[in-house]
């Protein structure tokens, strides 16, 4: 079969060689894209410049690398990985390839609060309240994302958590948030609308270390936790009756995994806005590449990082000096690739 | 010959399961196809019911190529019940059985007295009249299987293909379903082709057996002709005694264990 | 019980279903009356009747004939179309998350509209709508073609849904890029996106009517086939149903119905998502009843939401898309919570 046993002393795991190879290849690609991201921009640098810029605090490129490009690229990679991992968890639990953090109310909740914030503060945004852009918006987004998830979770809970009911409730709640967001966009000045649109498309513009740290911390805590839950995810793919028979404690396992997915998506969205398609497409791309029964977690995360980092490279440079929100590029890149994979797997 | 497979080559994409198989089904017979898992018996049944298009050879219904007859016309002559069919939740027995009338309905003739008569008769014949308004998902396995057969009956075909109609049923329910099939065959003169796993029930409820292995027909004929100790060794790799069923007089297979000796004359 | 008892019981079910049908028709009629009479300017029923039968050019006559009637007719058309399209879509994909937008119609329409604004300088409502319609049709044909499986020639539900999501995301990204670059396009887009049936004249009604009627005819033809398909492809085939044709007719119906209503009224695909869930407890699984019920529930829901939007925030109006979500979603959530949701 497609799994190999891996035993170290008394410990043993089952490993899919295909997933391992793809994950490693993805990491190499990610490193390459990061390097390119360091080199390309208003100030072109060769690899030597990048190295000196990174380690020599007095060099010309130090500020560009350490304060602009590196934190931005890291934010992109981490946010992409967090969203993709969140998507992979939700798709496994909901057993539905259309599920994404949107369904948990995280991204839509964040969007609606941020749009409300931008519209309410009006044209002062950017000017007086620079605070709103660096601290206020991420805080608003985090608050909105967690609130949104709490609403969905609370409404879907009824003597336990049914994956199917969760998805249906999530859709209802997401519809409210989305339509309120649409309405808010018609209320404000058209310039505010544009600013809000950039945020809700997902953007990495001006992201610094203050965005890297929380996302990295969240991943450091939640990735191991999620990987521990892998075995329950495998079992969760079967119907509820089978699951109980397999000895998975249904509700705690499911509730914890969903909580992890919520936190991952909320932190990522707070940093870079809802780059929603990453969460939906990366697990499906990983699933088709690895040919597994459910989205492979680590591989999805790596693909999410690659997709976002690569997209940001294009978003920064393709129409320079004009910059596109990264979320737009991820969709323009990721959607055709997903389409290609669907097309290829038809036979 | 009502239904005939002539040199059919069957498979899914690249994977060929059956290659160059011939089989004829006589009018008014009850034929059961037996064979080990993966021998191609369900694939063959699907091809006979035009659910699977042969990659080579042809399937003939009443002497005509089945793929040349409009599918709706075929549906008035031949009914197929696939293995473990699915139904939307909440579908009632009466609704399910009524859907068997599909091939007889057009947009201007949605519910004729023929339809009503056929549904009533099918429900009655399968003993489901009292359960007509119950949702399918609330029934027991045996009742549910009877409901599906009832749907196939309402279709009003005199040829019925059933793919493992007794899977997931306990022995009593298996017998109940097969008694119903026998009734349809004997009383109403229908031609029946089934795939079954239980050899003893197959012997009892079929008047012809077809034994398959590796996509080929190894033996066909009456249960007495087919169910021999040699054949069980060759087809199922099973050592067994074949004795007479004390109730029906048909062959009764008593397994000894997996085959320990090469196929050939008994020691 | 014997055979004789079964037939009357089956007939009893049909009787009950007809009763529900008439109740729903009555509900739509009430919604129509509300939609014609209630608004920022309330018109007594008698005056409304006067305006419809023997107009003499009074202020009320003008309000009714030029504004309220086209708005109401458009609301009924869009509600019926989206309700039916949603039920068809969920039936064909066997996915309770499927809405008509899944075929890419909403994003196809949006992309074609904003493109026509920046590339061709289109500036009239009728103009946008033509482009929106064309975009919706092209996008859904592309999704359907993508969803087609190799030899059998009918798209599997999961691939269809995924292809639709991918194409929609792609088009949405392009649309976002355009509106971020062009302020005029952004202004049109944001109001269209919110979803509204207000300020569209009789010409818009005539523009979308043929498409919606054609879609309804196809939907009616599709209903029995969809019933057969709901028993699985094997059983459907053994019942004599031609599966590729059934799928193609279904998709064509969804495209016409939702494409026309989305182009004219903006993103209201949520109607198509929730209405079948509200309707299924009434109709059961028979699409010959589910489709008409869904159409009527959709029309009543859309009109009531529109009327609420007119009165809830005077002197302004709230877009029907927002009201629909605010009214429909809690109802939908309550429904999902109260009973075990019907699996498809």
Structure, explained:
The complex is a heterotrimer of chains A (347), B (267) and C (344). Chain A has a single domain (25-36, 71-344), classed as ABC transporter involved in vitamin B12 uptake, BtuC (Orthogonal Bundle). Chain A is 74% helix and 3% strand. Chain A is built from 14 helices and two strands, in the order ββαααααααααααααα. Chain A has helices at residues 17-39, 47-55, 62-94, 106-121, 130-156, 163-187, 190-201, 209-228, 230-236, 240-245, 250-272, 276-290, 297-317, 326-344; strands spanning 4-8, 11-15. In chain A, helix 1 runs antiparallel to helix 3 (62-94), helix 3 (62-94) packs parallel to helix 8 (209-228) and helix 4 (106-121) runs antiparallel to helix 7 (190-201). The relative contact order of chain A is 0.16. In chain B, helix 3 (93-99) packs parallel to helix 5 (141-154). The mean pLDDT of chain B is 87. Chain B has one domain: 3-Layer(aba) Sandwich (Rossmann fold). In chain B, the strands form three sheets. Chain B has a six-stranded mixed sheet with strand order 6-7-8-3-9-10, sandwiched between helices. A four-stranded antiparallel sheet of chain B has the order 2-1-4-5, with helices on one face. Chain B has helices at residues 41-48, 71-77, 93-99, 113-125, 141-154, 171-186, 199-205, 223-226, 229-236; strands at 3-12, 15-25, 30-34, 56-61, 64-65, 78-81, 159-163, 191-195, 208-213, 216-221, 238-244, 251-258. In chain B, strand 11 (238-244) and strand 12 form a beta hairpin. Chain B is globular, with a radius of gyration of 19 Å. Chain B has 267 residues and is of the alpha/beta class. Chain C is built from 13 helices and no strands. Chain C has one domain: ABC transporter involved in vitamin B12 uptake, BtuC, CATH 1.10.3470. The two termini of chain C are 31 Å apart. By secondary structure, chain C is mainly alpha-helical. In chain C, helix 1 runs antiparallel to helix 3. The longest helix of chain C has 35 residues, at 3-37. Classes of the chains: A mainly alpha (347), B alpha/beta (267), C mainly alpha (344). Chains in contact: A-C, B-C. At the A-C interface, helix 6, helix 7, helix 12 and helix 14 of A face helix 6, helix 7, helix 11 and helix 13 of C. Chain C: It is found in: Cell membrane. Chain C: This is Iron ABC transporter permease.
């Amino acid at each position: 079969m497609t799994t190999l046993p891996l035993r170290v002393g008394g410990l043993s795991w089952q490993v899919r060689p295909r997933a391992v190879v793809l994950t490693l290849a993805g990491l190499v690609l990610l490193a390459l894209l990061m390097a390119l991201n360091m080199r390309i921009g208003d100030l072109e640098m060769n690899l030597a410049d990048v190295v000196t810029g990174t380690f020599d605090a007095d060099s010309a490129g130090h500020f560009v690398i350490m304060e602009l490009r590196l934190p931005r690229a890291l934010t992109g990679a981490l946010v992409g990985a967090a969203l993709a991992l969140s998507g992979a968890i939700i798709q496994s639990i909901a057993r539905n390839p259309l599920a994404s953090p949107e369904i948990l109310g995280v991204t839509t909740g964040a969007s609606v609060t941020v749009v409300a914030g931008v519209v309410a503060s009006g044209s002062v945004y950017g000017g007086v309240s620079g605070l709103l852009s660096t601290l206020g918006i991420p805080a608003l987004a985090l608050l909105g994302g967690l609130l949104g998830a709490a609403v969905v979770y609370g409404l879907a809970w009824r003597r336990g958590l049914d994956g199917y009911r969760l998805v249906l409730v999530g859709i209802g709640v997401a519809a409210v948030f989305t339509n309120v967001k649409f309405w808010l966009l018609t209320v404000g000045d058209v310039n505010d609308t544009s600013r809000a649109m950039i945020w809700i498309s997902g953007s990495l513009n001006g992201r610094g270390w203050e965005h890297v740290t929380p996302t990295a911390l969240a991943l450091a805590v939640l990735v191991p936790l999620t990987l521990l839950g892998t075995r329950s995810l495998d079992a969760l793919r079967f119907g509820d009756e089978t699951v109980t028979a397999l000895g998975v404690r249904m509700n705690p396992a499911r509730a914890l995994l969903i909580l992890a997915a919520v936190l991952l998506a909320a932190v990522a969205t707070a940093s870079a806005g809802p780059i929603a398609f990453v969460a939906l497409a990366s697990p499906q791309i990983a699933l088709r590449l690895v040919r597994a029964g459910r989205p492979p977690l680590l591989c999805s995360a790596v693909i999410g990082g690659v997709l976002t980092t690569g997209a940001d490279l294009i978003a920064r440079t393709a129409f320079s000096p004009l910059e596109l929100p990264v979320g737009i590029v991820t969709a323009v890149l990721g959607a055709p690739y997903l389409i290609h994979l669907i097309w290829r797997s038809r036979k | 010959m009502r239904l005939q497979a002539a040199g059919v080559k069957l498979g899914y994409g690249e994977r060929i399961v059956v290659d160059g198989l011939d089989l004829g089904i006589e009018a008014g017979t009850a034929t059961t196809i037996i064979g080990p898992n993966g021998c191609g018996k369900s694939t063959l049944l699907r091809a006979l019911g035009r659910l699977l298009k042969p990659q080579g050879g042809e399937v003939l219904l009443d002497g005509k190529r089945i793929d040349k007859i409009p599918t709706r016309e075929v549906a008035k002559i031949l009914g197929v019940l696939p293995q473990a069919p699915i139904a939307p939740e909440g579908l009632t027995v009466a609704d399910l059985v009524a859907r068997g009338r599909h091939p007889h309905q057009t947009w201007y003739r949605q519910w004729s007295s023929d339809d009503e008569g056929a549904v009533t008769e099918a429900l009655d014949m399968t003993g489901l009249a009292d359960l007509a308004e119950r949702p399918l998902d609330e029934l027991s396995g045996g009742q549910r299987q009877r409901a599906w057969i009832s749907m196939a009956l309402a279709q009003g075909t005199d040829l019925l293909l059933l793919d493992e109609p007794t899977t997931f049923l306990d022995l009593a329910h298996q017998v109940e379903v097969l008694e119903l099939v026998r009734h349809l065959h004997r009383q109403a003169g229908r031609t029946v082709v089934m795939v079954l796993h239980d050899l003893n029930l197959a012997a009892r409820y079929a008047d012809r057996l077809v034994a398959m292995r590796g996509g080929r027909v190894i033996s066909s004929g009456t249960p007495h002709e087919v169910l021999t100790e040699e054949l069980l060794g060759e087809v199922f790799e099973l050592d067994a005694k074949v004795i007479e069923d004390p109730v029906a007089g048909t062959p009764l297979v008593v397994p000894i264990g997996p085959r320990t000796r090469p196929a050939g004359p008994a020691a | 019980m014997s055979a004789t008892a079964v037939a009357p019981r089956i007939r009893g079910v049909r009787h009950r279903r007809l009763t529900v049908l008439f109740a729903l028709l009555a509900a739509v009629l009430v919604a129509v009356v509300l939609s014609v009479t209630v608004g920022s300017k309330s018109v007594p029923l008698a005056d409304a009747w006067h305006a419809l039968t023997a107009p003499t050019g009074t202020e009320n006559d003008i309000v009714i004939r030029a504004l309220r009637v086209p708005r109401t007719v458009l609301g009924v058309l869009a509600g019926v179309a989206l309700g039916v399209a949603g039920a068809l879509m969920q039936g064909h994909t066997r996915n309770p998350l499927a809405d008509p937008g899944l075929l890419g119609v909403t994003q196809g329409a949006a992309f074609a509209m904003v493109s026509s604004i920046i590339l061709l300088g289109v500036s009239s409502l009728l103009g946008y709508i033509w482009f929106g319609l064309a975009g919706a049709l092209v996008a859904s044909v592309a999704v359907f073609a993508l969803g087609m499986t190799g030899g059998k020639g009918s798209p599997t539900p999961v691939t269809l849904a995924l292809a639709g999501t991918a194409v929609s995301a792609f088009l949405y990204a392009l649309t976002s890029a355009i509106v971020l670059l062009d302020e005029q396009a952004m202004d049109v887009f944001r109001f269209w996106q919110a979803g509204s049936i207000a300020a569209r004249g009789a010409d818009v009604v005539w523009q979308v009517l043929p498409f919606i009627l054609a879609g309804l005819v196809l939907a009616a033809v599709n209903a029995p086939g969809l019933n057969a398909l709901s028993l699985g492809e094997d059983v459907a085939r053994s019942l004599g149903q031609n599966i590729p044709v059934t799928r193609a007719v279904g998709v064509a119906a969804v495209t016409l119905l939702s494409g026309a209503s989305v182009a004219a009224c903006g993103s209201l695909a949520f109607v198509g998502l929730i209405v079948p869930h509200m309707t299924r407890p009434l109709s059961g699984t028979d699409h010959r009843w589910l489709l008409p019920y869904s159409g009527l529930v959709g029309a009543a829901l859309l009109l009531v939401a529109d009327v609420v939007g007119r009165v809830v925030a005077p002197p302004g109006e709230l877009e029907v898309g927002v009201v629909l979500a605010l009214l429909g979603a809690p109802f939908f959530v309550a429904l999902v919570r109260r009973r075990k949701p019907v699996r498809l």
